[in-house]
Write a structure and sequence with these properties.
The complex is a heterotrimer of chains A (367), B (310) and C (327). By secondary structure, chain B is mainly α. Chain B contains 12 helices and 2 strands. Chain C folds into 2 domains: 29-131 and 258-281, Rossmann fold, CATH 3.40.50; 134-249 and 297-317, 3-Layer(aba) Sandwich (Rossmann fold). Chain C has 10 helices and 13 strands. At the A-B interface, helix 7, helix 12 and helix 14 of A face helix 4, helix 10 and helix 12 of B.
Amino acid sequence: MADIDIPPSRKAASPFSSNTPLLAWSRRLLKSMLPPLVAVLVALFAGAVLLAVTGFNPLDIFTVMVSGVFQNVRSIAEMLLKATPLILIGVGLCVSFRCSIWNIGAEGQFYAGACAATFCGVNFAGLPPALHICLVLVAGTAAGALWAAIAGVLKVAFNASEIVTTIMLNYIAIFMTSYLVTGPLMEQGAAYPQSAKFAHAIWLPRIIPSTRLHIGILIAVALAVVAYVFLFRSSAGYAVRIVGINSHAARYAGISVSRSIVLAIAISGALAGLAGAVQIEGVTYRLYQDISPGYGFEAIAVALLANNNPIGAILSGILFATLDSGSELMQINAQVPQVLVFVIQGMVILSVVGFAALKFQSARPSE
Amino acid sequence: MEHILTLGFLATTIGATWRLATPIIFASIGEVVSERAGVLNIGLEGIMLIGAFVGFWTMYETGHLPLAFLAAVLSGVAAGLVFALFAITIKANQIIVGAAINLLGLGLTSFLFRTYLVHTGQGVRIAPAIDIPLLSGIPYFGAPLFKQNLLVYSTLLLPPIVGFLLYRTSFGLTLRAVGEHPKAVDVAGRSVALYRYGAVLIGSGLAGLGGGYLTLAHANQFVEGMTSGRGFIALAVVVFARWSPAGSFFVSLLFGMFYALQLQLQAEPSIHIPYQALQAMPYLATIVALLLVRNRMDAPATLGVPYRKA
Amino acid sequence: MNIERRQCLVAMGALAAMGVLGPARAAGEFKMGLLVAGSVAEEGWNRIAYEALKRVEKELGAKISYVELQQNPASFEKAFRDYASQGYQVILGHGFEFQDSAETVAEDYPDTVFLISSSNIHQGKVIGLNTDSSQPFYLMGAIAAKMGKSAGLIGGMEIPPIKEALEGFTNGAKDASPDFKISQVYLGNFSDATAAKEAAVNMIHSGADFIVPDADAAGLGAIQAVREAGPQISTFGIFSDQTEIAPKNILGTYIADYGQGIVRIVKGVQAGTVPTSNVDFGLKDADVMKFFYNDKAAKPVPDDVRKYVEEVKAKIIAGEIKTRYRK
């Protein structure tokens, strides 16, 4: 990762520090949030230019987007519903990216999690609902972790590039899902390529009346905090970060590089798999062939925008969900092709890495 | 079942293999050049889509095939320029920039297709198959080997040309040195960035051509997302082929064969394998291949690492 | 299309300024919304729904709107709710995958009519509309079996409308000639025109003289392979008139004039009559399901085959021939 988190000691020594810890903290927060904000503005501007060039009025369209997403409790709840898988996966990717393990396979890990969750959800009907819900979530998490661990083990044992293996595992997971919903997991007596519907008792509880928002968002936020503590307050997390910064140095320091790599990628896979399970138990209630519209890829941008900070991933997940929700409204109300959102996402990533790299260069002139 | 053991079946496989491998050959050999200089461009998928779309659009508007191919290559180069700007000049993480290029490629081509083209009727005229006299008349193997279009044939020239460029010219020598020991090149007074730019632009131009092949020399329509993962396959090919142009050619053919066999075996009523398993074959094969080339440290030493002057 | 979009945009810009996102302002206005998973730009499935929507606008004077969603079941419910809360009286979800979310939203909006394409659901005002493609495909299968010796079928994804169509073709062919050979390939997507073309080339090499794609935009690759193979290979136009793409090879075209069927139903809704069961369009609905021949093809369908087709068509309409679900 080009943008390595500057250790707290260095930050404290920066001219921005102050004597009051709270003030210093809020300044640091502001300072760390400024580049992503500017990056998002640059990306939106690029989107606006594209809209203007193709004959749309960007201002009207952005107004429709923002006013629609934040119109009422329900629309905000819908946006948070979209943010849930993005935050979960994004938080996981923060851990993997901090270790400089380029897990491009969160999409496949999401599918693996969704498949395992569905298998447990449509079977074991005799279990008490609370236990059954937990079983489904655990199954999804474990499947995602295992799917990702394949790439991790291949990396440490065979020196196989995780970039290539995770991409390949994406395809394999998606074909596997297609096979399962047209074969073994297909709903009995129905003609559609989908699994049976989960019993109402094991749906994730909803947290705001008359909206679809379920406890998944709370799980996501809680796990973001856990991931933050893991990365920045635990020795295993410290090892993961050191391996990410310099694996040779880590090895000399007595850190098990292999262990850290497999751990980091398995954690990111676990969260992606959990996201798959949460999506089924909380939103769709059954498995489809196209259960993810690309959450695993979008979450890469979520993690990046957050500078691989799990707490930041909450905010960037919400931002991307706002863009997603807004792009649907923009399509409904102004007939702007919804695919524009991909362009904006791509631009967000480019401007984030652009700013981060520039900042990095000015912060560390030599290497 | 006995049908698949016939010469006819084999001939069909060969023809389809070569045609399906062609876009991957272009993209992967281009990526070899790029990675040899130390730049990992995972944006191939997006760049190929851009090439496919721009090539198609140009052909649709002008009806001029060479111009359309040129447009496909140039659009690839343009996308590569954006990549290089971020990955080389700004020194951002190459994987992330590549991921962004993929998103931009999919988003821009789909957005523009929906906004400007939509109904393209008959599609465009594509590069015609060239019949090599006499040879194309050979029973069974004449047609698949000697009745293809110019782009398919040109894949035969690409490995020697790129091989010569990389191993026999001073440009190639320096380019590879940039991937292994950028500091040495820098000390010798040559610009690491310039060579990397050159490598990325060659690579992305070839990826654009590979995309253009899809709409200008194979199917004759643009379909959103039509690259269907070929750019990612090309990345895998490069690793499997251990960064060799000739190797990439043969490994691409292997992948082309998987594609071809997948479609052929599905069509055999006597074979009862879930088609998803057949479709997953090339991807599984890639993983297996990575295990086979284990511990071979042929990767350029600074692959993926931005160069910073001391 | 583009111009329409811009005009729409000008109007929408003004509406956005007035707060179009609020509840319906003019109670008398009749509005219909459409949800598609994918793009209406692509040839085939989604385009059919888009054209139907335009017909409703033109013929019934309704205000229309559509949304192209990602193939994402999680986003469907919200889109239904968006339309329902804005006072749209009819919402068409174009595909069976919209069933669950329509049912859920219908609980909160009992006055809204939800039409679901390619579905046989009937739950209050959630009404499935199925175009039984197995019937016209049965006719195509019959033609192929009477005229040729082997056919290759290329499906996009293994989903009910496609599976049923291919099953119909197979039944039609086997009923006409039990020895007729059929091979079948699924692409696993609707975008890989390259793979569709190679699949068709392979089938032609293996002796197929009929190639029938049912894969939306990707299917164009297969038609192109047929065209390149020459006039002795035949195919059919599916869902829209593709005769210009391969004028020598397309023997006939099956058009599902879904717009006609939708207009018929929406007209009823406008007048206050909601269908009391799910709707299954078939050959009996001559205004919806059309099959016509291409007399300029290199090998036009001979008269005796046309006569046979008329006979089986009559039997299908009378319910004497089962075109699908034979297992």
